[in-house]
Structure formats: structure tokens, C-alpha cells
Design a protein that fits this description.
The protein is of the alpha+beta class and 380 residues long. It has a six-stranded mixed sheet with strand order 1-2-6-3-7-18. Strands 9, 12, 13, 14 and 15 form a five-stranded antiparallel sheet that branches. A three-stranded antiparallel sheet has the order 4-5-19. The radius of gyration is 23 Å and the shape is elongated. The two termini are 23 Å apart.
Length: 380
């Protein structure tokens, strides 16, 4: 297995601050996108930029295949989450005990570097893959997936692999993400005469008890690879000051969906809880607001050509070939909804992603490089 320059590329990518510009400390992906574009230009591989947002572009490299009518997509995101709370220097890649440390090392610059070198090695060794290969390095995965949404437009592919930390397992299923806000409406009054007001926080407390019961009941239905759906009330805000009866109280909910669950049906469950309280308490007022984030779950058949070729490559590498599921969202679901057989695969553990101490095991990066090479050469 020749991985010349792979780890140097990973270190160079980690050195570049590519925190998503949605976050306060984020410059965005322009610098790292330029670095990736020049990587392919130096190797005389066709590459271009695809504008996705003002000043933020996907970078796409193309390698011709023997059959120009068929395509394999490799996709990885360029952006990272914020560095707030990190306890190591985020942009000074350090190698220790076989691990490389830094923001994005795990999520997901390791996977991107492995993909880049896999494509470059085929060109350098004049190994033409059966299908045309696109490698897309996209923007905005860590906020609202707008890079993937732009790439999806009009794209066709016979298989797609999305770089995310899966500990070198092939994931064929992932949960969907539904995030939304519920706002309870009360009436302000002086706290010395609370009977003149309507306490929105008290109303919300009643609703929260019903929501907790509903979330616990989600465990009754389980997916063989993903387990049960989940719900979490992650934020609550209410009131203006302690001596005013609170007029408003808002919560934000993160609901993880299973394959086959529809987001509108999930939202309707919360609406029914609101309706129940409206019937019990004449002054109760609460409203569901439009989703903040909506991303349906993904599932690719285990007997699809993409999953079978990926499993065979893992067997050749002496790895666990059994398909798995992952609880987190990724760009993969957008392409799966368009009928593209999609897999999630990469080095590193999701436990290290977004962490105060982010790292990736270098041996896994090298194995991922070989996996991508084999997949590209064996997928017909």
C-alpha cells in the first residue's frame, strides 16, 4: 500500500482554518477549497469550482472512466465546526502515538485526504476505473447542507460514498434530523398580581411533561441498524425578568427520524400534544413553528451493487464487512433521496468529531485510502 504524501496532505488541510462561516469564528471554505483545487491542477486532473453560496464554492474533480455513461461520486465536506472549547491548538496538526490531532482531523479532512489521494493515484498509475469518477469537496455541511443541495441539482450517479468518521465501517443507513421550535403564548402582568397574567412558562412546563412521555415511547419502535428514534429538548427560553409574569416561552426540539418516518407525521404528534392541553386548559396557547432543519433518514439496500462492492473491498482488507447504521446526519441523505445508492464511510470515530480534543488514527487514514482505490477499480 503506497500512501506517499497522504499524511502530509492531511496535515496541510488541518492547518487551514475552514470553520463554517455561520459560526462566529469561521472564515468559511475559500482557502481550503483553493488548496484542493490546486492539488488536482498540479496532477493534471480536470477540476472546477461550483458556486453554492456567495463566496463559497464546491470543488469538483473528474477522472474519466471506461464507461462515460456511468459515474461514481466521492464526496467530503470542506467545513468544520467551531473551535470554541477546544483544549488543543486547532490548526497546528500534531502527531502523537499514531494519531493526528487538530480541528477537522477526524470530521472529515482525513476522509477527504484519503479520497483525494485515491483519485490521484489512479491517474498517476494510469489505472482507468470502470466508471467516471467525480470527487466533490463541498461547503456548508456543518450548518445547513447547502453545498450538497447545490451539487445534487441535476446530478446522476450509479453509486456515491460520503466521507464521515465510521471507524472504517460501511454505513448504509442514517437517522434523519428534524429541528423545530414550539412557542407558548401567555400574558404579561406585574408579579405582585400574577392572576392578572397568563404564565407561559407554566404552560410550557405542562407541555414538556407530555413531550417527555412521548419521547420515551419512541423506544417501542426500533430499526435493526439504527435502534429507536429519539427526541431531545435542547433549548428553552422564557420570560423577561423575575417580577413580570412571562408572556412567552419557547423550546427547541431535536427529533431523530428512522427510515420510513415522515417529518410531517412526526410534527403532527407534537401538535396533538398541544391540542390536548388546549382542551384541558382554556388559557393554554402554543404554536409549532416551521422546521429549522429538516433532513429525512437514509437507507440503502444491503444487496445494492454499491454495498456489495464496498463489502468485498473490506473483506480484502481484513475488515468487518457487515453493513452498519449511524445515528448522525450527513450529506448522503440528499443524494439517496434522488435515487443514488449512497454509502457513508471513513476513518476515525464520531466520538472524536466536534470534540475538545479531535484526532484521527493515521493507520485508519491509510486503510481508507486503499478502500477508496479498490472501490473505484471494482465498481462496474
Amino acid at each position: 500500500m503506497s500512501t506517499d504524501g497522504l499524511l502530509d496532505t492531511l496535515a496541510d488541510l488541518v492547518r487551514i482554518n475552514s470553520v463554517n462561516s455561520f459560526y462566529a469564528d469561521g472564515p468559511g471554505e475559500a482557502e481550503i477549497g483553493g488548496w484542493v483545487r490546486r492539488f488536482f491542477e498540479r496532477r493534471e486532473i480536470e477540476v472546477w469550482e461550483q458556486p453554492a453560496l456567495p463566496g463559497r464554492s464546491n470543488v469538483i474533480a473528474r477522472l474519466p472512466g471506461r464507461d462515460p455513461t456511468r459515474r461514481v461520486l466521492l464526496e467530503a465536506h470542506l467545513d468544520t465546526v467551531s473551535v470554541a472549547g477546544m483544549t488543543i491548538p486547532p490548526f497546528e496538526p500534531r502527531i502523537d502515538a499514531g494519531k493526528l490531532f487538530g480541528r477537522g482531523a477526524c470530521d472529515t479532512k482525513a476522509g477527504l485526504a484519503a479520497m483525494m489521494h485515491a483519485v490521484a493515484s489512479l491517474k498517476a498509475q494510469r489505472q482507468q476505473p470502470p466508471c467516471e469518477v467525480w470527487l466533490a469537496a463541498v461547503v456548508d455541511e456543518e450548518h445547513s447542507f447547502r453545498g450538497a443541495a447545490r451539487l445534487c441539482q441535476g446530478l446522476t450517479a450509479d453509486a456515491a460514498i460520503f466521507a464521515e468518521p465510521t471507524n472504517l465501517r460501511v454505513a448504509i443507513a442514517s437517522k434523519g434530523v428534524l429541528r423545530f421550535r414550539i412557542v407558548a403564548q401567555g400574558r404579561a402582568a406585574h408579579s405582585s398580581k400574577p392572576w392578572q397574567g397568563i404564565d407561559a412558562i407554566t404552560h410550557m412546563a405542562r407541555l414538556l411533561l407530555l413531550i417527555e412521555e412521548y419521547h420515551q415511547g419512541l423506544a417501542e419502535r426500533s430499526h435493526p441498524l439504527l435502534g429507536p428514534g429519539t427526541g431531545n429538548v435542547g433549548l428553552i427560553r422564557g420570560g423577561e425578568q423575575v417580577n413580570i409574569v412571562p408572556e412567552h416561552c419557547a423550546i427547541e426540539i431535536d427529533r431523530r427520524l428512522l427510515p420510513g418516518e415522515r417529518s410531517d407525521a412526526a410534527l403532527d404528534c407534537y401538535q396533538r400534544l398541544i391540542d390536548r392541553l388546549s382542551e384541558q386548559y382554556p388559557t393554554f396557547r402554543a404554536a409549532l413553528q416551521p422546521p429549522l432543519i429538516l433532513d429525512e433518514a437514509m437507507e440503502t439496500p444491503a444487496d445494492s451493487r454499491a454495498a456489495l462492492v464496498a463489502g468485498a473491498a473490506l473483506v480484502e482488507l481484513g475488515l468487518d464487512a457487515a453493513p452498519c447504521g449511524v445515528p448522525f446526519g450527513s450529506d448522503a441523505s440528499k443524494f439517496s433521496r434522488q435515487g443514488i445508492p449512497s454509502l457513508i464511510f471513513g476513518p476515525g470515530s464520531i466520538d472524536q468529531a466536534h470534540a475538545a480534543v479531535e484526532f484521527v488514527e493515521l493507520e485508519q487514514v491509510e486503510v481508507a485510502y486503499e478502500f477508496f482505490r479498490r472501490f473505484l477499480l471494482q465498481f462496474e
